[in-house]
UniProtKB/TrEMBL annotation:
Taxonomic superkingdom: Bacteria
Any Pfam family matching the protein: F5_F8_type_C
InterPro entries per UniProt: FA58C, Galactose-bd-like_sf, GH, Glycosyl_Hydrolase_39
Region listing for Disordered, in residue ranges: 78-107, 269-290
Domain F5/8 type C as annotated: residue spans: 104-194
Lineage of origin: Bacteria, Bacillati, Bacillota, Bacilli, Bacillales
Protein's name in the database: F5/8 type C domain-containing protein
């Protein structure tokens, strides 16, 4: 089991807040004919009204199922009204009779969905999807979205479109052109009922595309004679690929893995080929394997393959030794890149083999449609109780995206591209499937406008990917200066090496989300770390710039940090961080900075930092907030004033914390009716101080105290009529110091556990952004609280909390929060999420009473209808657990585990 993982005459474009987007082609009248070269792939009946005799089709043997789990679970009435003998969605007929269509239950004013998953039985090139839905007075499909997958487990959103058919047009089709076309075996179609209508009646769904050549080996594995799995009968593309082991943090390869690889002196029968591509799947001796040093528990082997051109990855083989229980890779993560700098995670693949198989076993993983790669990074994780990581063969399979040997085009084709919004300010553009060789293109222009355009004549590109630049070679751009809640039209143009720019374009329409986001869990992830250090910071001397760049790289590698909190408005620093997908939250220094900050993507500002600790007069503070709010909004209505950054959420002192907040509200003499209009977002620093009373049964300082603190904050806000204001946290953390200040001392593993638990408590309480304080230790004094709050140490080495944050982001960033896990109570905690890309529930569980050194673990008895579940630990471990009589026994400690399941799970008991 695997989880990981775009007009000249545009009729309509669906405005996307997140994910990949696609241009919509004009609607066609019935009978529907596919575009040139397209064939029906989804098994629809040929010979009727919709698909007359002669309609181009491929007998794929495709079938579909209705999805019954998750946020977009199919309305039960749709399933009940489907004809199992001649399924309505592929019977080639439209209705209006119920024998050829399916209908949701009657529910005006509410949402309902029909979610289909088509299995095409093999991988095809998918170029469009059509949906026929009734549009009478009571029935309407509002829109639909499409996801694609190779393995039926990890999906990628490849397009969506609105239904603009007018009422009374019957079952006219709605068409989504998937541009660029994607390679996929599984297609998920989520059809959304118009909430204003009583029902949604669906007549037919069809997937169009064409065949692909056979998947081939891309990784330059040596093909041996018969008797080996990797033999001369297998298809192979001569990529000339090579690989290297990574020795930089965060995922440092054990030295022995490198030392014993590429052992040309050993007799591997093929002249000393590197072990990972020597073509041997029977690795029985050191000549064809490489091993880590004994004692490598929980360590990594990180390898990067350079395929020398961009390909669609289909499958990955990773052969490792499972022997005696103490030699076992529990799983790996795959990341892909077209430029070698910007990587995208395809997710984790757990090793489902027996630990005592005593042979080299294959742990196959799969690519993700539209996630193309020139570089493939594989991070293998030795199990936390495995002494040695032994790696044999690694093979990467896939397809060419284009043929560079075709005749050259005198005029270059238009550029088709995908686009993904990381947040309101950062846009990722990928046109890696574009055939620049055949089109003789060596430069690209990127246009991003707020009005539609069909030609770039008279326009200036926002970015030009010059010849031999990283963006031109990788055909990928991270663009970071967008405005929130703004509709943009985007195009990429090709420059012929001798003929100049092709100016006619098909634009992509997209709308950015709000400043605070909230469409997905991952909008919460942020950091508080001054690039040049704070008041307790120890400078690195001559190596300070090296440390600064290394820190930024590690921040980027976390893969989901949206924002950093800082006081300096440095243009150079904003550009550096922006190119890495990170924005800034700034202190407000007057209207003179606002426009330039906005132009570089920053839209949140603060006046104060912990004014209660500074003993600021609440009335004076309120007056300053009003002045700054008026000044800020006069320059930029979209900018937000975020206040007041309270130092705590307690009432231990009369002039601090919530007492100070009460005084701030009351300073207007109207119970806050005026003060609440002086700022846009509530900002607090809810440190769990050592002096706070502990949650019953838990240690003082545990993050579960946040549940009480957040509730008390919300009570205060509501009492002043400010209960609907969004809340952010611009500081929170725990220090790995030796103690003596206001925070309890924690070891590194506990800091990691507390980080994960604190973020999930914040997510459950609707906190919009939380900045962990801080990223790097400010120094090396063991008894200095500020010197030990970081996720990496002063020398730049990641601590356990860095890896915990990495895992938390990977697991939750694309998910949506569902609620708390039922049937558990303190000291046990749990939350449930749904990830549409993974098509799975994610259930987080932990025992908050567990102590790192003195407690034995508890065991949760988890009921599931799945044959088994996959578990990711915050410690970086992976495990597949088969269910026995519908139950899986999951050990619980203070380190959260994340349980992936197709259907929701329940906790029967905890022993």
């Amino acid at each position: 089991m695997r989880f990981m993982k775009k007009s000249c005459a545009l009729v309509v474009a669906f405005a996307f807040l997140l994910g990949f987007v696609s241009v919509v082609i004009p609607l066609e009248s019935q009978p529907v004919q596919a575009a040139n070269g397209e064939k029906v792939l989804s098994g629809n009946a040929i010979g009727g009204t919709l698909f007359p005799e002669g309609t181009a089709a491929i007998a794929t043997g495709a079938s579909y199922t209705w999805l019954t789990e998750g946020i977009h679970a199919t309305d039960p009435a749709l399933i009940a009204s489907d004809d199992t003998g001649a399924p309505d969605m592929t019977d080639g007929s439209n209705g209006p009779d119920d024998n050829t269509s399916s209908t949701t239950g009657s529910a005006e004013g509410s949402a309902a969905y029909g979610t289909l998953i088509y299995d095409l039985k093999s991988v095809y090139k998918v170029s469009s999807v059509k949906v026929w839905a009734d549009t009478d007075n009571n029935s309407q499909m509002r829109n639909f979205e499409v996801y694609a997958s190779f393995d039926g487990v990890t999906y990628n959103r490849v397009g969506a479109t609105d239904n603009v058919n007018p009422p009374g047009s019957g079952f006219d089709p709605v068409t989504l052109a998937v541009k660029p076309a994607v390679y996929a075996q599984y297609i998920k179609v989520i059809m959304h009922k118009d909430p204003a209508k009583q029902v949604m009646r669906l007549g037919e769904v069809a997937v169009y595309g064409d065949t692909l050549e056979q998947m081939a080996i891309l990784s330059n594995n040596y093909l041996r004679s018969s008797g080996y799995f990797y033999n001369t009968s297998l298809p192979k593309i001569a990529t000339g690929a090579s690989y290297e082991w990574l020795t930089d943090y965060p995922f440092v390869t054990d030295g022995d893995l490198i030392k014993y690889d590429n052992d040309s002196s050993k007799n591997d029968t093929v002249g000393g080929a590197p072990d990972l591509i020597d073509g041997s799947s029977k690795e029985s001796d050191a000549a064809s394997t490489t091993n880590s040093i004994w004692g490598s528990k929980g360590k990594f082997g990180t390898v990067v393959f350079n395929l020398n051109d961009v390909y669609q990855i289909g499958k990955i083989d990773v052969w490792t030794l499972a022997s005696g229980g103490n030699k076992f890779m529990d799983g790996y993560e795959v990341l892909v890149s077209t430029d070698g700098v910007n990587y995208s995670s395809l997710g984790y693949t757990p090793n489902e083999s027996s630990r005592t198989a005593n042979v080299i076993v294959n742990t196959p993983g799969y690519g993700v449609p539209s996630k193309h790669a020139k570089y493939v990074k594989i991070i293998m994780h030795n199990a936390n109780n495995s002494e040695i990581l032994t790696v044999g063969e690694v093979a990467i399979w896939g397809w060419k995206l284009y043929d560079p040997a075709l005749p050259k085009n005198p005029t270059p084709d238009q550029v088709e591209f995908t686009a993904e919004l990381k947040n309101y300010s950062t846009l990722y553009l990928d046109w890696s499937s574009y055939n620049n060789v055949v089109n003789n293109v060596n430069k690209y222009g990127v246009y991003i406008e707020t009005s539609p355009f069909a030609s770039t004549a008279g326009l200036t590109p926002k970015f030009t990917a010059e010849a031999k630049s990283l963006e031109q070679v990788g055909k990928y751009l991270s663009y970071f200066a967008l405005k929130p809640e703004t509709t943009y039209y985007v195009a990429v143009t090709p420059f012929h090496s001798t003929g100049g720019e092709r100016k006619d374009v098909e634009t992509l329409k997209m709308t950015t989300p709000s400043v605070l986001g909230g469409e997905k869990v991952g909008d919460i992830f942020a950091i508080n770390d001054a690039p040049y250090g704070g008041g307790n910071y120890v400078h690195h001397g001559e190596t300070e710039d090296v440390f600064l760049m290394n820190k930024l790289r590690l921040l980027r590698d976390l893969g989901g940090i949206n924002k950093n909190r800082w006081w300096d408005h440095s243009s150079a620093m904003k550009t550096l961080y922006g190119k890495s997908g990170l924005n800034f939250h700034y202190f407000y220094h007057g209207p003179g900075f606002v426009q330039s900050d906005n132009n570089r993507g920053a839209y949140t500002f603060s006046t104060y930092n912990e004014p209660d600790l500074a003993k600021r007069d609440p009335a004076a503070a309120a007056a300053a907030l009003k002045a700054n709010h008026d000044s800020l909004k006069a320059v930029s209505s979209k900018s937000l004033l975020v206040e007041p950054a309270l130092a705590g959420l307690d009432r231990l002192k009369a002039d601090e914390g919530l007492n100070w907040l009460d005084a701030l509200y009351n300073s207007d003499g109207q119970n806050g009716a005026l003060v609440k209009t002086y700022f846009d977002v509530m900002d607090v620093h809810p440190y769990v101080k050592y002096e706070y009373p502990a949650v019953p049964g838990l240690e003082q300082g545990a993050p579960e105290k946040l549940l009480q603190s957040f509730q008390e904050l919300k009570t205060v806000m509501a009492s002043h009529g400010d209960g609907e204001k969004p809340i952010v946290v611009t500081e929170l953390g725990w220090s790995t110091y030796t103690g003596g200040s206001y925070l309890k001392t924690v070891d590194r593993s506990t800091q990691r556990n507390y980080l994960a638990r604190a973020y999930m408590h914040a997510i459950a309480n609707g906190i919009r952004t939380m900045h962990w304080y801080d990223f790097a230790d400010d120094g090396t004094e063991t008894n200095n609280l500020e010197h030990n709050l970081g996720l990496i140490d002063w020398n730049g080495k990641p601590k356990e909390s860095y890896y915990g944050y990495y895992t938390l982001i990977r697991v939750l960033k694309d998910s949506k929060y569902l609620g708390t896990v039922s049937n558990i109570a303190n000291p046990y905690y749990g939350y449930q999420f749904w990830d549409e890309n993974k098509n799975k529930y994610i259930t987080a569980l932990w025992d908050a009473s567990w102590k790192t050194t003195s407690s034995s673990s508890r065991t949760a008895q988890i009921a599931t209808s799945d044959p088994g579940v996959t578990i990711v630990g915050i410690d970086g471990s992976y495990k597949y657990m088969a269910a026995v009589s519908g139950v899986v026994s999951v050990p619980l400690t203070g380190a959260p585990v994340f349980i992936y399941s197709l259907a929701g799970v329940t906790v029967n008991s905890i022993n």
